[in-house]
Amino acid sequence: RYGIDENDFLLVFTSQMLNHFIGKCSEREAYYSIKTEKGKVVERILNVLQDISKEMRNTNFVLLLRLHPKEKCQDIHEYNNSEIRIIVDKDIPRFDLYYMADCFVGFDTMILAEASYARCSVILFRLHEIKCSEEINFVERASDNIEIAQNEAELYSLLKRIIYYKGEKIEPNKSFSDNCCYPYILYRCFS
Fold first, then answer.
1. What is the DSSP string of 56-108?
2. Quick check: 5 and 162 in contact, CB under 8 A?
């Protein structure tokens, strides 16, 4: 699908609508387009991938922007990049992504918890500059296998480690419903 082969490194950025504070007001905005002092969130991820691609010339990097169904694809065309291939899709089934992706990056959308239960690499990109109105991030509590990056340097080192161990990716040995739902329901409902 999308011409991605097994030698490519597919990073899926799962976006969502966030309530975040700008000054004293709360504003609802797509996570990918939230502007920080160092640029928009997607620009910051692209910068990290570009830095890694300079060191790893034998690896082709693909960034798939998996938008939330309520998000609009505005301003996505500005992210055309010659070094990193960018795909925007808000309709691709998430279960297909669990088999395709090498890593998921996002804030706190449910697809990240599900990806973790499907034994995919997951990184929460929690930038200090983005002040969100939600204090509890339920994805952090969903699994012990989720990494957290609070800036580009941390994202860089986590992605480099994931790329290095890419060949040792553990395949799910249970059904997706077992991996995605059962542990979460037990944890959230019966603990």
1. -TT-EEEEEEE--TT---TTGGGG--SSSEEEEESSS-HHHHHHH-SEEEESS
2. no
Cα–Cα distance, 23 to 144 (Å, whole number)? 34
Instruction: Map residue 11 onto helix, strand or coil.
Output: strand
pTM check: above 0.70: yes
Distance of alpha carbon 82 from alpha carbon 156, whole angstroms: 19
Query: For residue 182, what pLDDT band results from cuts at 50, 70 and 90?
Result: low
Angle 152-65-158 from CA coordinates, rounded to 5°? 30
What are the tens digits of pLDDT across the range 33-87? 788 888 888 889 999 999 999 998 888 899 999 988 777 766 565 666 668 888 8
Spatial separation of the C-alpha atoms in residues 186 and 191, rounded to whole Å: 7
